[in-house]
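To: structure desk
From: M.T.
Subject: fold request, one chain
Message: Could you run this one when you get a chance? Sequence is below, nothing fancy, just the single chain.
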Amino acid sequence: MRLLNKGGILATCSCSFWFDAWRFDRMLAQAAEDCGKRFRVLYEGLQDLDHPIVSGYGESRYLKCRILEFI
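Reply: Done. Structure tokens follow.
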């Protein structure tokens, strides 16, 4: 993040159930704050259909992806 200028794009993903979406987003916000930067989320994604999210099985919701633009 430190290397990106205004208008810079960052794509980042996490493939861990234990690092849930709330923690992932909080980590991104904190990292940006530490760099004195702000971003907007251009894309927020999950795993594709070949990795289904099964109801009642929270561990199946493990992949998170964010594309950020620095403002």
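Reply (cont.): The first helix runs from residue 21 to 35. Let me know if you need anything else for the meeting.
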